[in-house]
UniProtKB/TrEMBL annotation:
Places the protein is found: Cell inner membrane
Domain of life: Bacteria
Residues spanning the membrane: 7-30
Protein name: Type II secretion system protein J
UniProt keyword annotations, A-Z: Cell inner membrane, Cell membrane, Membrane, Methylation, Transmembrane, Transmembrane helix
InterPro entries in UniProt: N_methyl_site, Pilin-like, T2SS_protein-GspJ, T2SS_protein_J
SUPFAM superfamilies registered for this protein in UniProt: Pili subunits (SSF54523)
Keyword Transmembrane: yes
Organism for this UniProt entry: Pseudomonas rustica
Length: 163
């Protein structure tokens, strides 16, 4: 009587093949999850930078002084009052602001009143199109398109306009 202790070669080969198929399926599932996570993170970063840029533009347009608004192709120049102090009183300082589209980058340039130093901030990258339009001296419209997001349109009331 020959009692067998162990597995035959055929049983080992079948077990290894099943293990390899399960490993390959698990790897593909893991790889697809990682790719979706990377795409989602990239989408989120682009959306956050777009939100930040629009918020900066909105904040600046809400503080425009009564000086004229200058619109050129892909460029907006305004004068804004500076930040409000803790007592919510306007400060006397003014800032000259220019939003300029150079290539596919939207830049925000600011200079404080009486200063010779121009501060330049890269506001948004991958901009495809940017248009500014003044509506009845009471509202400003801007349309923005990036590679990922097309046709973002905002209409903002300017200071002194009736709601």
């Amino acid at each position: 009587m020959n009692s067998q202790r162990g597995f035959t070669l055929l049983e080992l080969v079948i077990a290894m093949a099943i293990f390899a198929v399960l490993g390959l399926a698990s790897w593909r599932l893991f790889d697809s999850v990682v790719r979706v996570q990377q795409a989602t993170a990239s989408h989120e970063r682009a959306f956050r930078s777009l939100q930040r840029a629009v918020a900066v533009i909105e904040r600046d347009l809400l503080h425009i002084t009564e000086q004229p608004v200058v619109l050129n192709a892909g460029q907006l120049s305004v004068q804004r009052s500076n930040w409000r102090n803790p007592l919510d009183q306007p400060r006397s300082e003014r800032q000259e602001l220019t939003y300029r589209l150079l290539g596919d980058v939207l830049w925000r340039e600011s200079r404080a009143e009486g200063s010779l130093t121009m501060q330049r901030q890269k506001l948004l990258e991958e901009v495809v199109d940017l248009r500014w339009r003044l509506l009845d001296d009471s509202a400003m419209e801007f349309q923005l398109s990036t590679r990922r997001y097309e046709g973002i349109r905002r209409v903002l009331l300017l200071p002194g306009a009736l709601p």
